[in-house]
Design brief:
Strand 8, helix 7 and strand 9 form a beta-alpha-beta unit. Helix 6 crosses helix 7. The chain has a single domain, classed as SGNH hydrolase (Rossmann fold). The longest helix is centred in the C-terminal third of the chain and has 19 residues. The protein has nine helices and nine strands. The strands form two sheets. A seven-stranded mixed sheet has the order 3-2-6-1-7-8-9. The protein has a two-stranded antiparallel sheet with strand order 4-5.
Length: about 270
């Protein structure tokens, strides 16, 4: 059986910024690619890697970490504090729904706007480099589907990115990954409320319109907005972010939706 590869991309809610590490069993049928060791490891929390600009090993974001220094030095990060991220539950739902094997490739960094990730900028370089290494490790002959999953937009809401600008930049990222890596679908987890004003609406509309007009884009779930209405799914410390339970709920919803897509049920 071939293996599907899924790139998990975005900012802090994709990186993972939760309050605890779940008692999570390894995900059967799923592996995580680690760039710094060029290995395929059992997929379980915590996920991701702390990779500096220049592609050397970085350090974990902890409670006493200087935020500005970490952001300055790192191109991508592990789930903050070594806590829970959505990727294991996403892949658990995907494997259960499809019966397929999967390799997860986590490339996310908090406080990044979409411009950081477009071709020609540093974020795109880390995506392209790590994704290419992962695909080489799996082997072209062993790869089935290749998807990107995107959760981002909070920083663009903060800085007031207009809808059309966001659409143009996200399309550039999608086109680059389609060209350079062979990504077949760019899947969106719709961003949740962050500024709670009209700036959020610009990002919501951009993501919805791309999924409605460009067949390369797929909306996996809109669950984030609902989760932020419930205390148990919200981070107890960081506004606009999710608890461990929230991250796991997002993963199950989005992973199940991608499974339905692969099975031809959507």
């Amino acid at each position: 059986m071939q293996t599907d590869v899924i790139l998990f991309l975005g900012q802090s809610n994709m990186q993972g910024q939760t309050e605890r590490l779940s008692e999570c069993e390894p995900v059967e049928g799923a592996l995580e690619y680690r760039f710094l060791t060029d290995t395929l490891e059992t997929l379980k929390n915590p996920v991701g890697e702390n990779i500096r600009y220049g592609f050397s090993a970085g350090y974990r974001f902890e409670e006493d970490t200087d935020i500005s220094e970490w952001l300055r030095d790192h191109a991508a990060g592990e789930a903050c504090f070594g806590n829970t991220n959505m990727v294991p539950e996403f892949c658990r739902a995907y494997v259960k729904g499809t019966g397929r094997k999967v390799v997860a490739v986590h490339i996310a960094k908090g406080s990044t706007d979409v411009a950081c990730w477009v071709p020609g900028n540093a974020g795109y370089s880390i995506i392209k480099t790590k994704a290419s290494a992962a695909l080489a490790k799996v082997g072209a002959q062993n790869i089935g589907h290749l998807f990107a999953v995107w959760l981002q937009g909070e920083s663009d809401a903060v800085c007031g990115t207009p809808k059309e600008t966001y659409k143009t930049r996200l399309t550039a990222l999608k086109d680059g990954l389609k060209r350079d890596a062979g990504v077949e679908k760019f899947c969106i987890i719709k961003v949740g409320a962050f500024t709670c004003d009209a700036r959020d609406e610009e990002i919501y509309a951009a993501q919805e319109e791309l999924c409605a007009t460009d067949p390369d884009f797929v909306m996996l779930t809109r669950i984030t907005a609902e989760l932020l209405k419930h205390k148990e799914y919200c981070s107890p410390v960081y506004g606009g972010h999710y608890s461990a339970a929230g991250q796991e709920a997002i993963g199950r919803s989005a992973g199940g939706a991608l499974a339905l897509l692969v099975n031809g049920q959507t």
